[in-house]
């Protein structure tokens, strides 16, 4: 077989695999039960391995953090692991570890999530521990203080050696300002220091309850038996005292704004450039995913090709879509040497302009299409993955078509629609928020060309001016 024949065969295999993937990307059967108290149960019975994946979601999250106490819900989430029911923190961890299970809680922008997996033979223990975490948490003042202090120290350490981790926090805080989507999920040094155990217990009473709970399980169990056990565990749990916080769409920024976070002596500049984008229910999700894959979502993207492969300005650059319930952010994120700050940003802006004005060729669209169709099915394989997916869809008011229709939508996306989506979602270079972390003395004057500059010291205990 010649080299040309091998190349043609490889192309046929890629296209065939992508077409097949588009056809099989669908959710397996599951049962949905709505209990009288508002708790929703999602059960997917599958017996390929003796394992049960668990995902429990509480609607709420950082958007419901009180003003000045950002990070409260995230702190509560981590505290749920530190003792519950009759077990203190050590005993609770031992109960999970002794059976080789996994159970962890985390805070998000609009949710608190508990995820885990256990052997099927330990299903009763899994349900007991989950019910204790949610309904009978210890909320120990000593454990809360340790977690709070650790979170503050993590932020301080990141300011010294991991600015990339803080960049999107500064970006969202600047873009969304006082909007709830500007609330830092993990809090700031200032807000975390202000949180007391009384704030934790008050938040728990007001924002945690059966009316906003989704429990999703996938794996080796009998559906009727599991339904009864979960109903017994959560069916009589009362509602939270407060209403779920309603979030209105944020207004996109017009014109340009620049936040310069000064870190004297920094040898690199980290930059985040963005505006308000779209939410999780955006109608043209498939077209947008193709566009973002091409623009900054893979190694051979437009951004990475220009900033890394051709010019060597960075080791990595990406375009990031944050899609919560209401429109989130669309942003370019990267870093470069201090002396190439302007060159790197100008190059990124040039690629944004090219994307909006030129669009994407049919050949590149097909490449992105195959890339997505090759990657996506791997997210629907394991019991923990499926449990998490079912729970997320339910928490955000989405049905099975969000998955089942995705493959066909990717496969049939057309260049004209993709071009329209690009112009709708990706901001004009004239309407952008720029956030830079670096040595202000070396870049202050040069970056003034991007717009009015507001400065904030890296030592300030907050993420917005």
Record the SSE blueprint:
Elements: H1 3-24, E1 31-34, E2 40-45, E3 51-59, H2 72-79, H3 89-97, E4 102-107, E5 111-119, H4 123-135, H5 141-161, H6 163-176, H7 189-193, H8 197-207, E6 213-219, H9 223-234, E7 256-262, E8 268-276, H10 285-296, H11 302-310, E9 317-321, E10 329-337, H12 341-358, H13 362-375, H14 383-395, H15 401-404, H16 406-412, H17 415-425, E11 432-438, H18 440-447, E12 453-457
Parallel strand pairs: 2-6, 7-11, 7-12
Antiparallel strand pairs: 1-2, 3-5, 3-6, 4-5, 8-10, 8-11, 9-10
Helix pairs in contact: 1-13, 1-16, 2-5, 2-8, 4-9, 5-6, 10-13, 10-16, 10-17, 11-12
Helix content: 40-55%
Number of domains: 2
Summarize the biggest pleated sheet: 6 strands, mixed
Give the spatial strand order of the biggest sheet. 1-2-6-3-5-4
In percent, how much strand structure appears in the residues? 15-25%
Please state the CA-atom Rg, rounded to the nearest Å: 24 Å
Helix-strand topology string: HEEEHHEEHHHHHEHEEHHEEHHHHHHEHE
Name the CATH superfamily assignment of the largest domain.
Metalloenzyme, LuxS/M16 peptidase-like
Total strands:
12
Which overall shape is indicated by the principal axes computed on the Cα atoms?
A: globular
Tally of helical segments: 18
Broad CATH class of the largest domain: Alpha Beta
Distance between the termini: 65 Å
Which stretches are poorly predicted, pLDDT < 50 over at least 5 residues?
Answer: 1-23
CATH-derived topology of the largest domain: Cytochrome Bc1 Complex, Chain A, domain 1
Average of per-residue pLDDT values: 93
The CATH architecture assignment of the largest domain turns out to be 2-Layer Sandwich
Structural class: alpha+beta
């Amino acid at each position: 077989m010649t080299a040309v024949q091998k190349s043609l065969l490889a192309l046929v295999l890629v296209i065939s695999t992508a077409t097949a993937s588009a056809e099989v990307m669908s959710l397996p059967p599951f049962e949905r039960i709505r209990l009288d108290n508002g708790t929703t149960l999602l059960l997917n019975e599958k017996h390929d391995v003796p394992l049960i994946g668990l995902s429990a979601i509480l609607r709420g999250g950082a958007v419901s953090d009180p003003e000045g106490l950002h990070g409260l819900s995230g702190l509560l989430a981590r505290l749920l692991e530190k003792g519950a029911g009759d077990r203190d923190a050590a005993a609770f961890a031992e109960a999970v570890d002794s059976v080789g299970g996994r159970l962890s809680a985390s805070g998000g922008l609009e949710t608190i999530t508990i995820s885990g997996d256990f052997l099927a033979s330990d299903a009763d223990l899994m349900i007991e521990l989950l019910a204790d975490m949610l309904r009978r948490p210890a909320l120990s003042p000593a454990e809360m203080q340790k977690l709070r202090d650790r979170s503050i120290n993590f932020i301080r350490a990141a300011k010294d050696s991991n600015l990339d981790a803080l960049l999107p926090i500064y970006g969202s805080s600047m873009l969304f300002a006082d909007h709830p989507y500007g609330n830092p999920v993990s809090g700031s040094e200032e807000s975390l220091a202000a949180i007391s155990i009384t704030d934790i217990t008050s938040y728990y009473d007001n924002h945690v309850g059966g009316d906003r709970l989704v429990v999703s399980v996938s794996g080796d169990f009998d559906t009727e038996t599991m339904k009864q056990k979960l109903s017994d565990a959560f069916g009589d749990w009362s509602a939270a005292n407060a209403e779920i916080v309603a979030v209105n769409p944020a207004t996109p920024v017009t014109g340009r704004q620049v936040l310069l976070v000064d870190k004297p002596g920094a040898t690199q500049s980290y930059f985040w450039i963005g505006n308000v984008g779209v939410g999780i229910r955006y109608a043209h999700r498939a077209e947008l995913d193709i566009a973002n894959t091409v623009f900054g979502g893979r190694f051979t993207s437009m951004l990475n090709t220009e900033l890394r492969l051709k010019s060597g300005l960075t080791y990595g650059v990406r375009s990031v879509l944050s899609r919560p319930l209401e429109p989130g952010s669309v942003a370019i994120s990267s870093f470069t040497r201090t002396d190439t700050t302007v060159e790197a940003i100008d190059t990124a802006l040039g690629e944004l302009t090219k994307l909006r004005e030129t669009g994407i060729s049919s050949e590149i669209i097909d490449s992105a299409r195959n890339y997505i169709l090759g990657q996506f099915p791997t997210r629907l394989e394991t019991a923990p993955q499926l449990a998490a997916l079912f729970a997320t869809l339910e928490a955000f008011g989405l049905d099975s078509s969000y998955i089942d229709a995705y493959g066909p939508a990717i496969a049939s996306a057309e260049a004209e629609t993709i071009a329209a989506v690009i112009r709708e979602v990706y901001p004009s270079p004239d309407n952008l928020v720029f956030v830079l972390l670096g040595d202000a003395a070396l870049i202050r004057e040069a970056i003034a060309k991007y717009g009015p500059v507001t400065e904030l010291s890296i030592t300030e205990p907050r993420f917005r001016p």
